[in-house]
Amino acid sequence: MKILVADALADSGVAALSQFHDVDVKTGLSKDELVEVAPAYDAIVVRSATTIDADVIAAASRLKVIARAGVGLDNVDVEAATKAGVIVCNAPQSNIISAAEHTIAMIMALARNIPQANEALKAGRWERSKWNGTELHGKTLGVLGLGRIGTLVAQRANAFGMRLVAYDPFIAPERAGRMGVELRGTVEEVLREADVLTIHLPKTPETVGLLNAESLRTMKPTARIVNVARGGIIDEAALAEALAEGVVAGAAIDVFATEPTTESPLFGLSNVIVTPHLGASTEEAQDKAGTQVAESVNLALAGEFVPDAVNVQGGAIDDLIKPFLPLGEKLGRLYAVLAEGGFHGDVTVEFLGDIADADTRILGLSVLKGMLSTVVAEPVTFVNAPLLADERGLSLREVSDGHSEDYVSLVRVSGTTAEGRTLRVAGTTFQPGDRERLVEVWNTPLDVEPSDHMAFFRYDDRPGVIGTVGSAFGEAGVNIAAAQVGRREVGGEALMALSLDDAVPSGTIEHIVDRIGAHEGRAITLG
Ligand code: NAD
Ligand code: MLT
Q1: Global pTM?
Q2: CATH number of 317-441
Q3: From the alpha carbon of 91, which atom of ligand 2 is closest?
Q4: Spatial strand order in the sheet of 2-5
Q5: Which CATH number is 2-92+284-311 given?
Q6: CATH topology for 450-527?
Q7: Tens digits of residue pLDDT in 364-374
Q8: Is 70 exceeded by the pLDDT of residue 316?
Q9: How far is CA 502 from the centre of its chain?
């Protein structure tokens, strides 16, 4: 498949992608150029320079995945991608240490005027008294956003003996307390207390302009401000004015409302330190970002689940759940094919036994993906499955119950078909090797390993049927790999499940149904 790397990506990332796919590295494309080339690609990889908006996504008819080699996703229209069934993933852990260390470097440089003193001495000025600094020990660090990077910064500042206060309404006070951080209920409280304020928020409509002329005036005149998060969270013009007028003492800024930029009212001020978005610019972070997104893109293009996808419910997959994912999809397909007259409304997926304790959302999605893939023309992915289900009035009810009578873990899909009949299919996995088993089909218990091509018949239990079915498949040139019969009582309705080496030629099932007087017969491709 074809991958466009639209921003500079570490060589290790490009190499990992090139192992399996054709990779074009084309950086600095304008929006028009992107729209023009996008239809050729199955995956696009960006950092923060290139914007993948709804127009680019609409043009990219083959697109399966957009990967952001970094954290922030403000340059990707995640909503438009989700609607188009395109996976969006990032590398959330790749550069957090680098960004936290850059923040600490900015705080230290700001406290001791290192860039200014360095510049003066190199210019021939010995300005020892001019660049008197301030100690961090005993000072208050105010953290806005106590997520991954905010936490790493707080931990490091703790080692300097700083007092830590933070605002993050989405973090539990107990968790903050364990890190030695006192949570405050408002941004204003943190601004009032901070000797050094550090920002680690995402850029959202709520956070844009959070630090403005008014809020800056609530800070101490000795306060210093650091932003290694996103440009726009601080109003740059208001900050420049506050710094020039002594409303606050200093600022260290890595990110700007418009990037790249060489012009800002901040650049002319001696109490300001600036870097050109260097938070993630270390060899280690770029290497990690490159290899992490390459891994995600390779998974996405192989049709597998991407743990770092941001627009798929479920997040990282529990080890207990992993072997059930392909089985879930097969159960979904099986349910859909066996549902005479189709299916809609409520379908129940039960997670029974040990798996009930795990986060099963992705497994529910897997069942949904399997069901829809039999009825929807477009490719069904973990991303667009919920949307497609909604459009068809199909809703999946997920039930978890730690009790399972016969199996360690069991997944059962059940519902009422469009013709008003109850339909149940169920499966499990067995050790060794997490081997899949279908243990209930058409409401009848049995024990069969799913295979790529299968056929099922419901008929009245009586001697000679297996032989007749075997001959009929033989006449059609289809080899039977395995056959299993399940029934609830002798002479009652029986279920025959056949694993076949080849796809079933059209007309064969109808012919067999006639020959054995079956109530129903179905062929299904599960692979
Ligand atoms: P994160 O998602 O782990 O943490 C963000 C925190 O902000 C979360 O805990 C969340 O609860 C909190 N939050 C969200 N909205 C809030 C609001 N309105 N008010 C208060 N708290 C709110 O993110 P992270 O990985 O720590 O990244 C933090 C920022 O750093 C992001 O903007 C990211 O893009 C940026 N970043 C910059 C660089 C760089 O090179 N300068 C590198 C990496 C990340
Ligand atoms: C990020 O969001 O990961 C950082 O801003 C760094 C980058 O843009 O690559």
Answers
A1: 0.72
A2: 3.30.1330.90
A3: 3
A4: 22-25, 2-5, 43-46, 65-68, 87-90
A5: 3.40.50.720
A6: Alpha-Beta Plaits (3.30.70)
A7: 999 998 998 88
A8: no
A9: 36
